[in-house]
Amino acid sequence: MTRAALALLLFAFGAVSALAVEESAAPKDMVMLTVAGAIANTNRGPLDPKRDSLFALKGISFDRAFAFDRAMLLGLKQGTVKAQTAELGQPATFTGPLLKEVLATVGAARAKVSIVAVDGYTGWLSPEDIEAGDWIVALAADGVPLGLGQQGPVWLLNTRKPGEAPSTTQEGHWVWSKYFIKVGE
């Protein structure tokens, strides 16, 4: 076999392997969280204004992204945050994948991340915030999945000291009913 034929065969095998990896990473169920922006790993293509009508309605656009379903999020390293939120009114134990793991899965650049909720509210975290905190993508409170009416199905939060209220610079950090993360400006 000539070198050119061998090189072509290896290239073809690599392309098929890469396609198989991308297909295996595709969500099999309802997408709960989409991450786009400065990411290296993707499993979906560009925004389709008809299919992705909520993104389009909120002015969100991307050329490529990574879509997570619940099983994919549960397959990542999980974290626990104990917090009392004004929304739930009593202390609860929240569980879900670590934000650091979500970002590592998509090969996110070390950059500011913007977190968008279903109602269009946007919070953000700096790389230093992410590294210093125990941020989780909460999927459940006290073992019960968060529903859309209970600030779910995905909520970004971390542990606060007892009695600690968010500062004016942190007010947008606890974003509930989130569905989109943009990495970078």
Describe this structure in words.
This protein is α+β, with helices and mostly antiparallel strands and 185 residues long. The chain has one domain (3-183): Alpha-Beta Complex (Sulfite Oxidase, Chain A, domain 2), CATH 3.90.420. The chain has helices at residues 3-24, 53-57, 70-74, 99-105, 127-132; strands spanning 31-37, 65-69, 78-84, 91-97, 113-117, 122-125, 136-138, 140-141, 144-145, 155-157, 178-183. It has a 5-stranded mixed β-sheet with strand order 2-1-11-5-6. Strands 3-4-8-9 form a 4-stranded antiparallel β-sheet. It is globular, with a radius of gyration of 19 Å. Residues 3-24 have low confidence and may be disordered.
Short description:
This protein is of the alpha+beta class and 185 residues long. The chain is built from 5 helices and 11 strands.
What keywords describe this structure?
single chain, 185 residues, alpha+beta, Sulfite Oxidase, Chain A, domain 2, 5-stranded mixed beta sheet, 4-stranded antiparallel beta sheet, 5 helices, globular, disordered N terminus
Mean pLDDT score: 83
Proportion of strand residues:
25-35%
Poorly predicted ranges (pLDDT <50, ≥5 residues)?
3-24
Second CATH tier, the architecture = Alpha-Beta Complex
CATH topological fold name: Sulfite Oxidase, Chain A, domain 2
- Gross geometry: globular
